[in-house]
Amino acid sequence: MRFLFVGDSMTVGKAGDFTWRYRMWQHLEATLGDGGYAITGPRTELYDTEANAPLSHAYGDEAFPASARRHLAGWGEGWLHMAPVIADTVRAARADILLVSLGLIDLGFYTDSTQTAANARAFVTAARTANPRIKLVLLPVIPNIRAESDAPFAAECDRFNTLLAKAVADLDAPSSPVLLASRPAGYDIHTDTYDGTHPGPSGEHRLAAAFADAMHQAWGVGGPYAGALAAA
User: What InterPro entries would the database entry show (predicted)?
Assistant: First the structure.
């Protein structure tokens, strides 16, 4: 199984972060073992806030293997940006399973809920042109601190999540299943992020758990998440 992480700033992480990708790598190591999977993708960098560019390799754990750092994630990138490139990426990376966390940046800066949902559908369709048997796990948008003071934005987040659930129901197929992961259990933007948006260590564990548990429950892949906050 070849996993490809797709996401925005919550997934790529910044210099010094462990990232939820690191937590997922630990989970895959523990449940699938060496040689039972691969992590793939065209990028390995973290975002460097001083350079305002993805130039850093300073992960929280320097022992995080280079081969497991691969991803398709970008600071400020959303469904709008990933839909046009996912087919070529899946083809080049020979990806089997996409773990996708996108949408917040779209709704915040680029597109409304209807347009964002249309881009999510286009993303799935494009991925299937490269691998007709691709499997996808999609994470709903987790409203960030802006939603607490911006009611229209909060409403758009809620509406997008409804539209995303409908898209998953429409697009799910036996040959290419699409899962909607649950919102991470217990996720609190005031304690699980460092700024109301981006995950800190506890948030990283909760995000990884949402994907891991969805795959295990639906497909029998790996096992239940047993990271630091699995029982929290």
Answer: GDSL_Rv0518-like, SGNH_hydro, SGNH_hydro_sf
How far is CA 26 from each of CA 19, 22, 65, 97, 98, rounded to the nearest angstrom?
11, 6, 11, 17, 17
Q: What is the pTM of this model?
A: 0.97
The residue type of 193 is T
Listed in sequence order, the residues at least 6 apart from 150 whose beta carbon sits closer than 8 Å to its beta carbon are none
Task: Count CB-CB contacts under 10 A for residue 114.
Answer: 12
| β pairing state of 46-48 and 53-56 | antiparallel
Task: Give the orientation angle of helix 113-130 with respect to helix 151-171, to 10 degrees.
Answer: 30
Separation in Å, CA 189 to CA 26, 144, 227 = 23, 7, 19
Dump pLDDT digits (tens) for 105-116. 999 999 999 999
